[in-house]
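User: Modeling request: complex.
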Amino acid sequence: MRPLTRRIVLLAAAGLALGLAGDDAGADGTPVIAAAADLQFALAEVAAAFMAETGQEVRLTFGSSGNLYRQIREGAPFELYLSADEQFVLDLAKDGLAVDEGALYAVGRLALFVPHGSPLEADGTLAGLKAALAEGHITRFAIANPEHAPYGRRAEEVLRHQGLWEDLAPKLVLGENVSQAAHFAAAGDAQGGIIAYSLALAPDIAALGESALIPEAWHAPLRQRMALLRGHGRIAAMFFDFMQTKPARTIMRRYGFVLPGEAM
Amino acid sequence: MDWQALWLSVRLGLFTVVILVPIAVALSRWIAITPKRGRGLVEAAVTLPLVLPPTVVGFYLLVSLGAGSWIGETWRALFGGGLAFSFEGLLVASVIVNLPFAVQPSQRAFEAIAPELREAAASCGMSWWRAFARIELPLAWPGILTGAVLTFAHTLGEFGVVLMVGGNIPGETRTIAIAIYDRVQAFDDGAAARMSAILLTISLLTIAVTFALSRRIGRRS
Amino acid sequence: MTEDRVKGLSVALRQPGPIPLDVAFAVAPGELLALIGPSGSGKTTTLRAIAGHYRPVEGRISSGDTVWFDSMNHVNVPARRRRIGMVFQSYVLFPHLTAAGNVMAAMEDVPARQRRGEASALLARVHLAGLDDVRPAQLSGGQQQRVAVARALARRPDVLLLDEPFSAVDRPTRARLYVELAELRQTLSMPIILVTHDLDEAARLADTAAILSRGRIVASGPIEAVLPRTDLGDALDRDARSVLIHARVAAHDPSSGITTLAHPSGTFFHPLLDAAIGADVRLRIRARDVAIAVGDPGRLSIRNRLAATVTGIVEADPPMVEVHLDAAGDLLMASITTEAARALALHPGLPVTALIKSAAFDRVSLGPAEATDVRSVQR
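Assistant: Request completed. Predicted assembly structure:
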């Protein structure tokens, strides 16, 4: 091989080795926390508080609880999992993928969200929705995908409970997680949607429309459980503990979550 | 503006190119010099990722690389972490998905080399490697480079496969395309817009470069 | 250039298809064999088989003691390891390399330091001095052909193969290239094979010829013998019927621009030749340029007159016939109308005078002594 060719090959090989090794070194240490999409804003605030208190960073990734559950089964390198449906956590614990059954960290609520300019009213009893549907004012309505998003499943329960499911089903826009559903609901193309109360309270979303709580008796409770995952590190364990401290609970309460041990 | 995501995407693009281009050169040359009958299957296999929906590709990759697969388990045994939901897993997916982008322009460049040129090189006494390095490569490089540029640009934008195989792990698998999606979901349109503008610029640059290179290919044949 | 061992080429090929072939021939060192035939006759396939670019079904090809192909013993040396120099019909120069670069591409076994110098020397030898750093795209057709020849020679080949190397250039250039190749080959001692469909070319350059028709050799031997063959039907173009005659340079007259050539049957007057007195000249005389006179021709503008005897009359494409003449042992052919033959009462044994217009000579080659036509030097 000509000397120049040889030099290039060696340089490339060195670069490749360095690069591949390099990125691993940087990623170590900061744990990745997988959280249900309804925690989009709340958890970001908690993480900031955690950083202020301990000086430690965490990396957050949000998605539907079902999706994250699947990723964990596939070997995703998360260290802490905050689910919106405790059954997922219990399943992981049974198979040893979570170190134990963790802890209940919140109970979630559903809210009807209507964007500005929608013919719908923000009526938590959904009477307005029923009327609008009958009059043909509804073309699109957003919920999270009931297949794998707990908030979507509960939304379906609510709609069935009120006898609205059959008529509304063809007009549903399914969000891949409840955060995306909130997006669809707030964007204006849909006349409204049923989303997480915590998202409806978030300033960015609240500014885009109006919301109303939906009676919790109409659906199974949104028992949100979290657990440390197999192979987790020290910082993740610290965060797990932090979630249960007063500053964290205060933030959660502000986002409409009911905390374990407290009534609404 | 998620600089970490942009840097991750750039790294993914560069590594994909570095790994894929030699493979693509070897493969495309073989296809170019093999008579039509013998190469149909290989050509179809190379084109497949182009036609398959990204989610289908992602699904099959997840099944083959994830926990429970023998590739995934072997990787875990050798290196500790899993292959799915890691940068290396993305790299594997990226190399497979970009195969047609890297191979096809390169293949056209090799096909444009008249068979007699190879015969003339042989009659000059050149060994196979010499003829390849001193005659074929200098004539085919615009095509090979086009393949590399397209691969890089396509990797930057790849979404479906990355999401399925890599998830959305900051610093590990949150590429800039995923980051844009992530910011939109978080109602942070500003960040999403800035990152989209960067990707748009890169795409335009890619088009400009490939056009310029195509003219060079045209001039040579 | 030193050639240590001079090797002869031996070829035998047989296959039923896709291109039918059944040929066997040998080419001695220094000999130029022309493979002549129409397209599809298998001549290019034969050449490519010798080069190693085509693998025939059956046969044997060897250069000296080295066997390149032997179907019975499963020997098939790859093209790159056969010491051949090949000039392709379309030259196939490497477009991204300069003229010198192209020539050096064939110098794998020359030490790197010497390559540049030898390439320049070769290019000078083919009259391309100074064009070392020019790319093929900027060279004329004739110049490209010369680069191709130089590249083939750079390989120090045991066999030189030329595949219709003049077909891509125009007539004036071709004439010039013929002269150059004829000179060049005086300095070469390897067997040379020239594939062509043009009898002109073969007549000018070849020592021996083999006529191919549908894959078979229908005639072979010295070019003088093959060229006038009457029995080759489609294989040889009727219009190009000609003979080759040897004459000696007798005298030069610069004032009138004429060289006198002596032949036992008469004298030829030829435009001034730069050749020594006594040098052997080979002339090609076409049948259609020969007229016949019975009795004293009287005052005619045609000055070349040879004493000959009619040996036979052969049917040609009507209304022509071909009259065969014996001029002091050499064969001459005249193409005249049947009417004329009848009017002159031509018959075998009749003494006649053969008349050949001076300008009708194709001065083909000048034998072993170096000689040039003064006019070609000026061009």
